[in-house]
Amino acid sequence: MPNSRKRIALLVETSLGSGREILRGIARYARQCGDWQLFHAAGGLHDPPPDWINYWDGDGVIARIQNKAMLEELVSLRVPVVDVLGVCENRFPLVHVNDEAIAEIAAAHFKERNFRHFAFYGIKGENWSERRALGFKNACRDSGTFHILETARKPADHADERFSQVQQWIASLPKPVAIMVCSDQRGLELLEACLSENIPVPEQVAVVGVDNDTALCEISDPPLTSVRGGHSNVGFESAALLDRLIAGDVSPPDPLLVPPNGIVIRESSDIQAISDPVIAKGIHYIRERLSEPITNDTIARAAGVSRTLFQKRFREETGQSIRTYILERRVERAISLIESTDIPLIEVAERTGFRHQEYLGQVVKRATGLTPGILRKKSERA
């Protein structure tokens, strides 16, 4: 009996979170339709197509088309192809994230936090990065100053040169500044530059990346806020489009742009803009020591002013007392640990400065309406 399943080649990298999300979306469609057989070779974004593609006998291809050589290989197959990258002009239909909408989410996040200085760090010559830069600039146009740095992709032996350029740029920016980074990979680099320059994040530089590559976002210091670009839905919609093309439908004349699906807020941007550098220094001290006993005296000393002056300026800047601010940050940190880890609750209490697990339970229930145990179970089901 002949095989009636459609043979689909996937030329999508597994080295980046965005590529893996696209593959997840394709897999979701394949399970739904039930008649696809998938062929995929793991690799990096800039790896050449696998050798087997030259003699492959299939029905369609979904690919991140990198260059003209790859394009010509795919044209020679004479089967329907859907592009999910968009860096190389070609006649194949394109399904892509909406870069302008991604930038608008980042801008709205920063404006909600009262920032007045904005900046973008991207990759020179990459059209998707340039679209995000333009979208971010337009979204921030009437809200304050705007600055941009775009550096070219360079081989590893030039990494120090680019890093030095990023360091100098960050140091020159007015503070506090909200920086959108074109991708999570560049976000890690930016945060490392801030750390090397002793610039507190997020108090003086708040950072938002794109793709929500969980592993990268969580190993960064501090953890990186990131916009969910919508790559899983790109995968699903590209698969649905390919299925229609295989059935004989005409290619759509315009790219299909998939909207982003929100932002995951982490510590790199989770703060209101602090214009007073003394208070920014004190807040950074607090956030770095939430597990320790903290007093107004020690915070003021770290900020380099008297306790009385620090308390006065703190209330003027934040509208609340130091004690209230510390409690709110501890509760936020505790909720995050409860929802995103399986750390025992007694350890959560220790890490967030609560002397007893019982008190942790009281403040978490007051904030969320749920006990820590129920909150954790609810997050596990989500």
Tell me what you see in this structure:
With 382 residues, the chain is an alpha/beta fold. It folds into three domains: 6-96 and 231-260, 3-Layer(aba) Sandwich (Rossmann fold), CATH 3.40.50.2300; 99-229, Response regulator (Rossmann fold); 277-381, Orthogonal Bundle (Arc Repressor Mutant, subunit A), CATH 1.10.10. Helix content is 48%, strand content 14%. It contains 15 helices and twelve strands. It has helices spanning 17-33, 68-77, 99-111, 127-139, 159-172, 184-196, 214-219, 231-246, 277-288, 296-303, 307-318, 322-340, 345-351, 357-368, 372-381; strands at 6-11, 36-40, 60-63, 81-83, 95-97, 117-123, 145-151, 177-181, 205-210, 225-227, 256-258, 263-264. Strands 7-6-8-9-10-12 form a six-stranded mixed beta sheet, with helices on both faces. Strand 3, helix 2 (68-77) and strand 4 (81-83) form a beta-alpha-beta unit. Helix 3 (99-111) packs parallel to helix 4 (127-139), helix 5 packs across helix 6 (184-196) and helix 12 (322-340) crosses helix 15 (372-381).
* Text of the CATH class of the largest domain: Alpha Beta
Q: Give the helix proportion (percent range).
A: 40-55%
Low-pLDDT runs of 5+ residues are none
Spatial separation of the terminal alpha carbons: 43 Å
Task: List descriptors.
about 375 residues, single chain, alpha/beta, Arc Repressor Mutant, subunit A
Task: Show the helix and strand layout.
Blueprint: E1 6-11, H1 17-33, E2 36-40, E3 60-63, H2 68-77, E4 81-83, E5 95-97, H3 99-111, E6 117-123, H4 127-139, E7 145-151, H5 159-172, E8 177-181, H6 184-196, E9 205-210, H7 214-219, E10 225-227, H8 231-246, E11 256-258, E12 263-264, H9 277-288, H10 296-303, H11 307-318, H12 322-340, H13 345-351, H14 357-368, H15 372-381
Parallel strand pairs: 1-2, 1-3, 3-4, 5-11, 6-7, 6-8, 8-9, 9-10
Antiparallel strand pairs: 10-12
Helix pairs in contact: 1-8, 3-4, 5-6, 9-10, 10-11, 12-15
